Q: What sequence folds into this?
């Protein structure tokens, strides 16, 4: 407080030093209580501020005589109401229960200790902008690759999103006038999309197939490793969100054909309260075949990604996936951030943009906006990948091996390592019952998933061949 002046016993006016404006505030002592009521007088003129302070004190006296509450609700009280409302939404299926748990954790562990006791009407822009500074000074986050535990900008941004949601709830309840002070998130970097590079993804796939999946210490561990292996391939070839993968059922998967008769996989996915259909290359049908062959849940309404008991894999194999990333030395990205299941979605987006896929079509496929695609994946925009887009046109040379790594190359044609064959052999015989794949077309019939098949191996990438479009 600054410029403090007494209006009458128990009533003072003052200015605040933590705001830019020169408006006055008043503090009213509540009789017979160790408590004060603070009110913004919304004027820079002292004489007018004194009159408004007297009027405010009279209104407080009237409320006390009528037995009405004097104080505005605190942030903690409004946050508790908001949290209870979000839990009801989660129980009704409007949001995920994990989302509610995240909101509840933000409020209990970070937001209430920071400003829970403050009146909701006194929380303004200054307190909002100070949150990242206070959070970085006192908080710890997940351990990074360099051993540091500084809370990340992504974590702070998520917590500030919860603050904004609580203040928006307060606006709806007419507890505060507007949400304008809480729009910009100050001094925070945009959330990093920690995708795998083509080299890293090839390394992950090869390690999982040759050194991890088949070398489990028990059948129980081996089952989960196989599920994780096929889970990775499905996720990286579809761009699904983890919640969409969690909700996926066998009835949501079907084989369709395009106008030229080329088959592809169509999936009806649900997540973030929305429904959409995405498409995937026909190879994904094979990956789903492998999952169904070992899955105890094969019914139309059963989950595709399940536990060994046939229940929904709520964690989406977080523990074995973490083990795989750790032992393949890919748990942390080049920036030091810890990778998660979302990295496969980001990898899909990066690879597709590198292939020259239009941002609008990719946004529709991934169930997001073009702006999000451009904001987070602008570093792989088509104009920066001319060697991929122009390859095969007259006058354009063959692209380098580093530029032509695709899903098909990594998934189906990784170079042999440690004596392993490039692709696991399949046993001849009848199709297993319940599989979703039709008779697989020849490689000549499927061209989309394998944009440059001649570059499937680094040892063969240097050979001069005619491009597919010129043959």
A:
């Amino acid at each position: 407080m600054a410029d403090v002046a007494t209006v009458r016993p128990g009533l003072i006016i003052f200015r605040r030093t933590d705001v830019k404006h020169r408006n006055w505030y008043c503090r009213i002592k509540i009789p017979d209580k160790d408590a004060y009521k603070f009110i913004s007088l919304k004027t820079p003129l002292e004489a007018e501020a004194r009159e408004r302070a007297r009027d405010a004190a009279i209104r407080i006296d009237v409320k006390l005589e009528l037995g009405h509450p004097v104080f505005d609700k605190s942030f903690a009280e409004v946050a508790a109401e908001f949290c209870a409302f979000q839990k009801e939404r989660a129980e009704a299926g409007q949001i995920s229960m994990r989302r509610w748990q995240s909101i509840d954790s933000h409020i209990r562990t970070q937001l209430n200790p920071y400003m829970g006791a403050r009146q909701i009407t006194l929380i303004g822009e200054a307190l909002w902008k100070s949150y990242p500074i206070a959070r970085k000074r006192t908080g710890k986050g997940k351990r990074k690759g360099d051993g540091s535990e500084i809370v990340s900008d992504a974590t702070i941004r998520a917590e500030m999103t919860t603050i904004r949601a609580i203040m928006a709830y307060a606006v709806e309840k007419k507890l505060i006038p507007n949400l304008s002070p809480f729009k910009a998130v100050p001094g925070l970097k945009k959330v990093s999309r920690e995708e795998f590079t083509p080299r890293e993804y090839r390394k992950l796939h090869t390690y999982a197939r040759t050194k991890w999946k088949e070398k489990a210490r028990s059948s129980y561990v081996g089952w989960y490793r196989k599920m994780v292996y096929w889970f990775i391939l499905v996720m990286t070839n579809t761009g699904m969100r983890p919640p969409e993968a969690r909700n996926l059922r066998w009835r949501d998967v079907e084989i369709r054909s395009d106008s030229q008769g080329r088959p592809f996989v169509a999936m009806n996915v649900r997540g973030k309260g929305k429904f959409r259909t995405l498409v995937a290359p026909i190879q994904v049908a094979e990956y789903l075949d492998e999952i169904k062959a070992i899955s105890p849940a094969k019914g139309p309404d059963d989950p595709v990604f399940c536990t060994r008991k046939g229940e929904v894999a709520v964690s989406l194999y977080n523990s074995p996936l973490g083990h795989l990333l750790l032992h393949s030395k890919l748990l942390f990205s080049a920036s030091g951030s810890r990778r998660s299941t979302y990295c496969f979605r980001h990898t899909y987006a990066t690879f597709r943009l590198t292939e020259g896929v239009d941002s609008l079509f990719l946004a529709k496929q991934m169930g997001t906006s073009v702006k999000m695609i451009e904001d987070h994946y602008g570093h792989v925009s088509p104009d920066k990948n001319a060697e991929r887009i122009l390859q095969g046109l007259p006058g354009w040379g063959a692209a380098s091996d580093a530029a032509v790594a695709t899903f098909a190359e990594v998934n189906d044609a990784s170079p042999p390592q440690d004596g392993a064959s490039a692709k696991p052999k399949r046993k001849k015989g009848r199709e297993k019952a319940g599989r979703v794949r039709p008779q697989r077309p020849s490689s000549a019939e499927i061209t989309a998933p394998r944009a440059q098949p001649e570059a499937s191996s680094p040892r063969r990438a240097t050979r001069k061949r005619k491009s597919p479009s010129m043959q």
The first helix runs from residue 46 to 66. Residues 397-410, 412-434, 438-471 have pLDDT under 50 and may be disordered.
